[in-house]
Amino acid sequence: MKPELIIRSQSPDEEMDYLWSILKKISFFREHGYSVEIPDHQEFQRLAQISPDFNAVDKETVKNIFIKECYDSGFYNAGIVALEAEKPNIEKIFPILLEFNRKWGFKIFPQYVIVLTRYGPGGGYEANSGKIIIMTTKDGKFKKSYPAHTPVHEIIHIGIEENIVKRFKLTHEEKERLVDLIILKKFGNLLQGYQSQKIGNSKIDQYIANQALDDLPLAIKSYVDKRHQ
Prior knowledge:
4 strands; alpha/beta
């Protein structure tokens, strides 16, 4: 059965919790070359400077500031319209992902909830729930030129998180490169204009020929075994 896609904005509480998590990891994002959007507000700029040392910070006070002075429920409307128009393009990947599921355990959720944020590095995911978080602008633009690209990228992340990434202890650079390779090799004709990220470990490339995607755990095991020699 084809998974269901739900597209909506983040609620004030969700947006605050997500922003909080971004602020706590901001050094990680900067270290890996991501540009990160946070509120242009003195309190949040201050938190970015002291991250991740938030022990003395009262989150409830910060949350009240955020809801009163930063959150705008109408900000996400154009992004929702743009992504709704892309639903058919995103859904084209599901037959192949269902095949991956049968062959080697690619994880698929019956429902993916795509929530829009105005903050963060561009996209994110919750591997245990199927929730996908995507940054948009007020005029409905996204980090990637094509609105469907980031949701697909995050769906692939979710699908390989347990069976591949955690199982074989892949690094951040390895997993990002692997996701890009899967998309380029299997969905390049469906996602015109998709481009690999600048980050990523290209040493994995030779192990991910098209036939390797019929048994990705075996291909990654070969890569990891070689890496450890």
